[in-house]
Write a structure and sequence with these properties.
Shape: globular
Strand content: 15-25%
Order of helices and strands: EEEHEHEHEEEHH
Structural class: alpha/beta
Length: 145
């Protein structure tokens, strides 16, 4: 199944703050988790942290939760409009030195979302869950669904 991915991170190439997956099938629940951001950039402190709307978890809890969320899908496809989203999701599958969370197979796709503007289309801009939901709506609409 295809999951629409969005992340929030602390500035350009910064540490992950939040990760969301919204399944293509709207009847299924999304995945959303956020990490502590001890030294946010000014922009992050003003625009991202106030709209996280979830309790913060540890990196281990996020990684384990992400793997558990995807565990029943034999071929998950994480679909994103930005390369850093994919990089952050892939890094969350690393459990420790030489170890990864148990996911048999996973694919990532970087899409061309020309015209997608999460700040304009998301109900809560800069919230990863809301932005991933907006990406799903945009792509499905573009695909005629």
């Amino acid at each position: 199944m295809r999951y629409f991915l969005d992340t929030e991170f602390n500035g350009f190439c910064g540490d992950l703050i939040a990760l969301a997956l919204v399944p293509e099938d709207a009847a299924l629940p999304p995945f959303y988790a956020a990490l502590e951001c001890p030294k946010p950039t000014l922009w992050v402190a003003e625009h991202i942290l106030p709209v996280l709307n979830t309790e913060l978890v540890s990196r281990d809890t996020l990684g384990h939760g992400l793997a558990a969320y995807l565990s029943n899908d034999p071929e998950p496809l994480l679909f994103a409009d930005w390369p850093e989203d994919i990089a952050h999701a892939a890094m969350m599958l690393v459990a420790g030195p030489g170890r990864r969370y148990a996911i048999d197979r996973i694919k990532f796709e970087l899409c061309d979302a020309l015209g997608f503007d999460s700040a304009a289309l998301s109900q809560v801009p800069h919230n990863a869950l809301s932005d991933a939901t907006a990406l799903r709506a945009f792509i499905l609409r573009r695909e005629g669904r």
